[in-house]
Amino acid sequence: MTNQMLSKVEGNVLTLERVFNAPRELVFQAFSDAEQLKQWWGPRGWSIPVCNVDFRPGGIWHYCMKCEDKAQGDFYGMESWGKGIYAAIATNEQIAYTDYFSDSEGNVSADMPSTDIILQFVEFEGKTKLINQATYASPEALQQVLDMGMEQGITETWDRLEEHLQNAQ
Fold it and tell me: What are the residue boundaries of the Activator of Hsp90 ATPase homologue 1/2-like C-terminal domain, all occurrences included (predicted)?
């Protein structure tokens, strides 16, 4: 059901690509609608109890991921807050935003690196190729999030997105 995510690191830029078996309008909607994001965002075993989306340039996406899986040991019950600020949106084509670690009030964490993200939604053989280009302040900042297991988290998140898209069609 799922296909391979391609991952490439060049200096301070991480590029991820994956093809989803769904029209790009559907994939784009999954990233722009709070109710849909709650269904699939985050790694397996994590829920999104808070997800507020103001989907417009300058708008904010503020969310909380919470570990609901007791099998994840020390992570069980843990909350991870995030805040995105949308820079540019081209419907069904691209979303650009800056992603931050934050607290429940939306205050940005000074200890964790921010990420400038460009999501591209490309029609590809009747499916959608999603290209995620993530730019960090430095190669060291990128390595910090890679060391936290970010690639596994994105892989699981995109697996959940693929399942969500299949159910939405």
Answer: 21-165
